[in-house]
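Researcher: I'd like a structural prediction for the single chain below. Treat it as a standalone chain; there are no partners to consider.
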Amino acid sequence: MAYTIYRTRPTGLSSRAALTVVDFVGRLSDWNDARRTRNALSRLSNHELDDIGLSRGDIERVANRNL
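Model: Treating it as a single chain, here is the predicted structure.
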């Protein structure tokens, strides 16, 4: 037997505040992922970047693709 969960958007003030906090945490997580990606790619040599089809100029674009 399958169960379906219906989610509705909360309308109360405290619920909206909770959504704001959730949104902030999500954005913070996205920023941290981009930072870690940027740092990891920056540590690679030009030859290693070329091996994966990137150049130094691509690092920022790749790191920020989900922001």
